[in-house]
Amino acid sequence: MTQAVLPDSTREFEFTPADFERVRKLIYQRAGIALAPSKQDMVYSRLARRLRARQIDSFKAYLDDLDDPLSAEWEAFVNALTTNLTSFFREAHHFDRLYELLLKQTPGSEVLLWSSASSTGEEPYSMAITVMEALDKVRLRVRILATDLDTNVLETARQGVYALDRIEKLSEERKRRFFLRGSGSAQGYVRVRDELRAMVSFQQLNLLDPQWPLKGPFTVIFCRNVMIYFDKPTQYRVLQKMVPLLTPDGLLFTGHSESFFHATDLIQPCGRTIYRRAR
Ligand SMILES: C[S@@+](CC[C@H](N)C(=O)[O-])C[C@H]1O[C@@H](n2cnc3c(N)ncnc32)[C@H](O)[C@@H]1O
């Protein structure tokens, strides 16, 4: 049940329960994101920026514009409401498993990997680092596809430039080998080295789209910390499209707080938050 939004006299724009319901409906239809009733303040502050930027003086007028499915505002609306939290080597055990799996591939073979909610790029670049380390031991041709719905984060990811503190937990060896330190105006930033950037292709993809322009097959798919925003039927529909894109022995890596008991006909657990195709 939706909590009542109390009138807040300190707010710059009026934001009624009906406005919040409209936002919830629109983002659910477009991106599958099921916003909890507790997210009213977050929604207000993120979208108020859009109203200011467009010099619109009411949520009603702003949302009326989105009644047009072709409105130019859709991209910014979706970008404003996605949550993009990520980090290098988040849930590190997945990268250990990826490394082991790479070493088991037939030498000389082509291996495709997919980061399906890549956010600002830390996840696919961590995959690329793992690949480079595996390539010290086995010769493979590896390509990484990184996709996300949010065009802003994809742009950041393509640049591959991060504040220095984003890599502070990485070993000195990894920092030296895979990042370039900025100087002058880029002081305090690092850039991922070209060999990593060359391995990763970024592309916009809405996991909700009925058709995905992807072939695979992927040896590993990372689908982490995005399904948590979807309801169970939406998660199931995404898995129905995703699982057939795995190689027969391929692995699906999911987020630490996601569970898929409702999809055991599609995937079976084989490690902590790791799944393979159901046989
Ligand atoms: C919390 S981040 C997770 C990033 C990374 N996978 C990780 O685990 O660190 C969630 C990402 O999912 C993306 N996302 C949300 N809805 C999506 C959708 N329908 N299709 C594709 N990506 C989506 C968001 O834009 C955001 O970048």
Automatic annotation (TrEMBL):
Swiss-Prot/TrEMBL keywords: Methyltransferase, S-adenosyl-L-methionine, Transferase
InterPro entries: Bact_Chemotaxis_MeTrfase, Chemotaxis_MeTrfase_CheR, CheR_C, CheR_MeTrfase, CheR_N, CheR_N_sf, SAM-dependent_MTases_sf
Catalytic activity entry: L-glutamyl-[protein] + S-adenosyl-L-methionine = [protein]-L-glutamate 5-O-methyl ester + S-adenosyl-L-homocysteine
Single annotated GO MF: protein-glutamate O-methyltransferase activity
EC number per UniProt: 2.1.1.80
Enzyme class: transferase
Occurrences of domain CheR-type methyltransferase (ranges): 8-279
Annotated positions binding S-adenosyl-L-methionine: N84, T86, R90, E123, D148, N206, L207, R224, N225
Function summary: Methylation of the membrane-bound methyl-accepting chemotaxis proteins (MCP) to form gamma-glutamyl methyl ester residues in MCP.
This protein's name: Chemotaxis protein methyltransferase
The organism of origin for this protein: Solimonas aquatica
Lineage: Bacteria, Pseudomonadati, Pseudomonadota, Gammaproteobacteria, Nevskiales
